[in-house]
């Protein structure tokens, strides 16, 4: 029974990693590629490591597998966020069919400042007061 669970976990993990690789090829822009690969590859590697921990069923291997899974879950989203943010600030274009760009009016490319919603609201309020 344990072998069947290991086979299923490792097979599903491999499938998720394959889907991440296909996502890199099929997604139209960098930001969607980052999203697909971060989610699918992290889940795939986590499943493979879980299957490995169940297969060997030793304390040292299981603790290492858990440590690697926790490390991946903590670092992959942060790394993807930073890569996406840096790519946006450098000027990597969004997909032409993107519906919304939340940072469009909040990022100043001249001085590289990112205005928060509070400072943006204060600027709009001051413009409204000055025009009246």
Describe the structure.
The protein has 132 residues and is mainly alpha-helical. The chain has two domains: 2-96; 102-132. Helix content is 75%, strand content 3%. It has four helices and two strands, in the order H-H-H-E-E-H. The protein has helices at residues 2-26, 30-56, 59-90, 117-131; strands at 107-108, 113-114. Strands 1-2 form a two-stranded antiparallel ribbon. A hairpin with a 4-residue loop joins strand 1 (107-108) and strand 2. Helix 1 packs antiparallel against helix 2 (30-56) and helix 2 runs antiparallel to helix 3. The chain starts with a helix and ends with a helix.
Evaluate the radius of gyration.
Answer: 22 Å
Which structural category fits the helices and strands?
mainly alpha
Placed side by side, the strands forming the largest sheet appear as: 1-2
Major sheet characteristics = 2 strands, antiparallel
Fraction of residues in β-strands: under 5%
Quaternary structure classification:
single chain
Helix amount: over 70%
Q: Give the low-confidence spans.
A: none
Averaged pLDDT: 84
The helix/strand series, from N terminus to C terminus, equals HHHEEH
Count of extended strands: 2
Tertiary shape: elongated
- Count of structural domains: 2
């Amino acid at each position: 029974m344990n072998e069947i669970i290991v086979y299923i976990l490792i097979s599903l993990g491999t499938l998720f990693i394959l889907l991440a690789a296909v996502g890199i090829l099929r997604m139209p822009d960098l930001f969607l590629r980052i999203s697909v690969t971060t989610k699918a590859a992290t889940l795939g590697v986590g499943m493979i490591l879980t299957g490995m921990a169940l297969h060997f069923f030793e304390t040292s291997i299981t603790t290492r597998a858990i440590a690697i899974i926790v490390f991946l879950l903590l670092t992959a989203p942060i790394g993807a966020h930073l890569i996406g943010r840096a790519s946006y600030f450098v000027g990597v274009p969004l997909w032409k069919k993107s519906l919304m760009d939340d940072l469009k009016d909040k990022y100043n490319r001249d001085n590289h400042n990112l205005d928060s919603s509070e400072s943006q609201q204060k600027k709009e309020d001051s413009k409204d007061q000055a025009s009246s």
